[in-house]
Structure formats: structure tokens, C-alpha cells
Design goal:
Pathway: Lipid metabolism; bile acid biosynthesis. The protein is α+β, with helices and mostly antiparallel strands. It contains five helices and 18 strands. It is globular and about 70 Å long.
């Protein structure tokens, strides 16, 4: 399970919680402009925009969970079991595998608008990375400062939805989340007014009663509503440190604590890591379940015209500052 959000607070931010019961060997990966991508059906992509994000690296190939490119276009893949359907390659279509979708779009497009032109003839195809690495069932959120969309490969083909919420979680498909949000239109961050009956003088007896009914469970539909409520009512100074801190607070509001969600196998689903990407500055911020100190990698401090993948290992232990 995962939650992804956008947020604009002076700068444009994009990030997510990755919720999983195990580590997948994730590392912060910076792919420079001249790293050679070998796409299965679309040929070589030897020159492209640089991008940074979290990835599993196999055979020197970054399998991105999410990333942002140097132009500020960001994308994340989220679990979509039971709904994702990948097709067989078709002649005349832009056949792209799920694991290539992020590098292909971020490598060739500066905006969502450019990406939509490519996607108009795209086909998400059932070609795994290897026999040992089957395809994950995913859908994706793609965003820049001006636009946010959801991409879902289902049995009807690739569906593209405008996303005014700037939020995505998991199953069910996005149209359900759009409809479900209507159930919460009465929620408010302010103090509620009585609508129970004209002759009754009912008053709130505490703070926060305007949001009674805001779901607190960990289901995808509930996390979608809660993340949207936290994001759209969020307030912060328009300064980088304050904005990044606030972004992580929003993600904390939908994070998984060990023990609150058990998989069918009895394992604990936790927020393995959370990330925040500044699309304007190309900075990737992250923290992990075991170390909630915010850490950062700035792509523009590296040589972006290189051909070699750059990797940063995830620190494991908690970083506690002892004050005495």
C-alpha cells in the first residue's frame, strides 16, 4: 500500500509513502543525461533528461519506484493489485513495459502535456524485467506544477484521468476515489456550525470537530480522503525547510506504524520510506521507518552529463541527537 501527493507552496513538491512488508533493496538513484537506457520495444535512449528517485538497481538498471527529472516532471508507481492488466506488444503502438514507464516519460518529457502526447499511442505491455523479476501490478501518478494525471493500465487499455486532488493511493481504480470524495464534502478544518435542526442550539465542545467523520483507517480509500484533507488544509511558510517539514507531516498523517496492518501472511505492512521531491530544485528528500531524520540528495550538485548511474545507500539506524 502507498500514498502519493503533490503540493505547491512557492516551490512544487511531489512525494510518497512507500508501504511494504519488506525492503526491496532500494537506493537513491541519480540517472544522468547520458546513461544508456535500453528500452525493450522503443530502442535505445542514450540522451535524455536527468532524473533522481528511489530505485532497485539490477544489472546496473534503475527500477524506479518514483522519480523527478531536471525539468520538474515527477512520477510514481503505486500498487494496483487485482486491477492492473498489461497487454501484449502491438505493431504500430508505443509499446512500453511498466518498469520502463518512469524513465521513458521523465527522460523524454519536460511537462505532463508533453507526456500525454506520447501516451496517446502508448501500450503498457506484459514484458517482465527478467524471469526472476515478475511485473508488479501498478498504476501511476504523473505531475508537474500545472497538471496532475493518473495512469491506469486496465483490461480496457490505458486509461488517463485528470487528478484535481493531487493524491493517489491504491485499489480501487481512480474513478471510485473521485466519487468517494463526495462523501466527505462537509468536512472542514474550522469550527462546525450546527445544521441538525433549526430549534436546537448545538455547539462544538472541542477543537477539531469539523472533521468528525474523516476516516482514520489504513485502507486505500480512507488514506486517499485523509491525505487530500491534510494536503488541501495544510499551511506552512513558503521557505524550503518549512515546506519540506510540512510535506513530511502530511505523509506522516497516512503512514503505516508497524503492527497496525498485517498482510495475509501475517507480516507487518509499514511505511518503509517517505520521500519529498522539490521539482524546481531537483532535490530528493527522504526518511525511512528506521531513521526519521530527513536526508537529501541534490541532483544539481552532481555531474549531470555523465554516463554512469550514481547511487546512495539508505542509512539504517535511527539518528538520535543526545542533548546531555
Amino acid at each position: 500500500m502507498c500514498t502519493c501527493i503533490t503540493w505547491e507552496n512557492g516551490a512544487f513538491y511531489f512525494g510518497r509513502n512507500l508501504d511494504l512488508e519488506y525492503s526491496f533493496g532500494e537506493q537513491v538513484a541519480l540517472t544522468p543525461r547520458n546513461y544508456p537506457f535500453q528500452l525493450r520495444c522503443l530502442g535505445e535512449m542514450n540522451s535524455h533528461y536527468a532524473m533522481i528517485g528511489m530505485a532497485t538497481v539490477m544489472m546496473d538498471y534503475p527500477l524506479y519506484a518514483e522519480a523527478v527529472n531536471e525539468k520538474g516532471l515527477a512520477m510514481a508507481g503505486l500498487n494496483f493489485p487485482g486491477s492492473a492488466v498489461y497487454q501484449e506488444p502491438k505493431e504500430g503502438a508505443r509499446n512500453v513495459t511498466p518498469f520502463e514507464l518512469i524513465p521513458w516519460l521523465l527522460g523524454t518529457c519536460a511537462t505532463v502535456r508533453e507526456a500525454l502526447r506520447l501516451l496517446s499511442s502508448a501500450r503498457i505491455v506484459n514484458l517482465p524485467f527478467s524471469e526472476q523479476v515478475p511485473l508488479a501490478p501498478l498504476h501511476w501518478m504523473l505531475a508537474d506544477r500545472k497538471q496532475c494525471v493518473v495512469l491506469e493500465a486496465v483490461k480496457e487499455g490505458l486509461q488517463i484521468y485528470q487528478n484535481p486532488f493531487g493524491v493517489l493511493t491504491n485499489n480501487p481504480p481512480f474513478p471510485y476515489h473521485q466519487m468517494n470524495m463526495q462523501n466527505y464534502l462537509n468536512l472542514t478544518a474550522g469550527s462546525p456550525k450546527s445544521r441538525f435542526g433549526g430549534g436546537l442550539r448545538l455547539k462544538p465542545y472541542g477543537q477539531g470537530m469539523g472533521a468528525i467523520g474523516l476516516p482514520g483507517d489504513a485502507s486505500p480509500a480512507s488514506r486517499f480522503v485523509r491525505a487530500a484533507f491534510l494536503k488541501w488544509n495544510s499551511r506552512s511558510e513558503k521557505e524550503e525547510q518549512a515546506s519540506v517539514t510540512q510535506f513530511f507531516h502530511i505523509l506522516d498523517g497516512v503512514a503505516m506504524t508497524r503492527g497496525m496492518v498485517l498482510t495475509p501472511e501475517g507480516k507487518c505492512d509499514i511505511t518503509t520510506y517517505s520521500c519529498c521531491m522539490n521539482g524546481d530544485k531537483g532535490i530528493y528528500y527522504y526518511k525511512t521507518y528506521e531513521n526519521n531524520r530527513i536526508q537529501a540528495v541534490d541532483m544539481h550538485k552532481e555531474q549531470l552529463d555523465s554516463e554512469k548511474l550514481m547511487l546512495w545507500k539508505i542509512d539504517g539506524g535511527q539518528d538520535i541527537c543526545s542533548r546531555n
